[in-house]
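Recall that a protein's primary structure is simply its ordered list of amino acids. Everything else, from secondary elements to tertiary packing, is in principle encoded there. The following example makes that idea concrete.
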Amino acid sequence: MKVTVVKNVLDANNRIAEENRKLFDQHKMFVINLMSSPGAGKTSLVERTIVALRDKYRIAVIEGDIQDTFDADRIAKLDIPVVQINTGGACHIDGNMIRETFPAFDFSKVDLLIVENVGNLVCPAEFKVGENIKVMLLSTPEGADKPAKYPLMFQESSALLINKIDLMRYVDFDLEKAKRDSLALNNDLKIFEVSCKTGTGLEGWIDWLTKQIDAFKK
């Protein structure tokens, strides 16, 4: 019974996500589903990405957290349209939650929508929201064992950003193992070594993302 219930929930969410995707496509809007564990640096990456691309694309953000509006308040300071989703305990954002934010946006004025998912290495990978790509953020203090422990995240993502490389000298993180294990799960995974604090490596991420958006809009 449990397996059937879970399958039904995922199937229902997939239908809603497909409807979301059709709406996004109508507006030529590229959507990123950004996932990581808590504290890996998702909001910092969103801020850096906005600053780098705001002159080229019209950007909006959906922030997902169990409670509070701290991250949404940070994004709002950049004068970017942002909506906070508080899940009230749920470990992920789903397609229906995303759909409920639509009245807050004018999609005719959005080129890039960034969905910052709830900090979690399990559930967010299972629930589509209508995104073009999933992007995974792994920070060096978390350890290099995460691809082996949470494979679905890495299998589902188009890009992996290994963040906080400025802390490599202080933490026990095997960079080559993390990259090797990630690519074993997903040979097409694009990997970037970055520091959202210092800006190191982010030019590669921005260049790759720009190419993805431009290819989609063509």
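Residues 19 and 130 are 7 Å apart (CA to CA). The two ends are 45 Å apart (CA to CA).
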